[in-house]
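Continuing from the previous page...

OK, I double-checked the sequence for Tungsten cofactor oxidoreducase radical SAM maturase against my notes and this is the correct one:
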Amino acid sequence: MKFHLWGAKVSIDPKPDLKYLYIEITNRCNLKCEMCFKQYWEDEEGDMDWDLFLKILDDAKEFPDLKMIYFGGIGEPAVHPRFMDMVREVKRRGFALGMSSNGVLLTESILEEFVRLGVDLIYFSMDAIPTASDIIKLGHVTSKVVENRIKTLVRLKEKYKTEKPVIGVEVVATKENYRQLPEMALYLRELGVDSMLVSNLLPMTEEQAKLTVYDGSVDMDPIVRELQRIASGGPFMKIAEFRLRTERYCEFVENNVAVVRWDGEVFPCYRFLHTYPEVIFEREKKVIAHSFGNVKEKNLKDIWMSRDFVWFRFIVRASAYPSCIDCPLNDSCSFVLDTRQDCWGNSPSCGDCLWGRGIILCPIPTEYMGKFL
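Thanks. Re-ran it with the corrected sequence; updated structure tokens here:
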């Protein structure tokens, strides 16, 4: 493929080099957490059709470097009426399988089948250590529920003498819990958790924005140093940036990720998966879902190697897009109002992406493939 960029000729030889396939099997959820995208987006809810799911798995065979299928996106995978059928089918076909879950619907019998099937990775969300009142202010799932699921998994892994599934916990740092993060890391170590991911809050409203700890209002350096010290004895730890830095690095693009939404639309990352508002350093912005094709109409390999998708990944890898976050004109620029296009002509616009600055993190299983699996 031939492209032109700033007067230079760019030649790209597209390859079927997808490594991580994220499938949003449903965008419904059994909870209604205050800080979730679902409370603010414009999208309809739905479950992935079984035949479409099978078609995606068929398409996945065409990617020789595929390392894992991951049930993720926005929603609780276990809500899907055929969730366990999907788990069994992925493992039957020999794929590694990971997922994110709030844990509420994962009964002991389900967790035991996970262990017997060899499910590879499970990430739970937890933002506080369980207390007597057992309430998380940022959501509606109690820490005690997640603690119970983790203890059950650890016991079952010991029973079956296996290291799978790897157990991860994702923590969203805010002004309400940041002081507790080192204590939480020690607590997760005692539980037997393998990995802890510390991300930041992506605010959808001005009120939520007041809770962020990456805006200079909180000195996170002592917390980070203590987390790094604890990490030397486990769990493995991945920690977000807590200040805006120059470097731009998209983990989705760099690790060759594609995300298939419940309706078959294909996206490069979580950010463009749905349409919703966000607040970027006190500035409101609208993120508009941007798909590169639908697997109902095309083969996933053809979408991955399509001209638009190939060029998008090149632009992101090369950081050939403006840095809107710290641009002195962003208060008066119409391009920063939404993600349709940036002032350099790129569509969609990544110029305000907090994932690209390492401030927002999502589970991407690269570390676990070598370290644990």
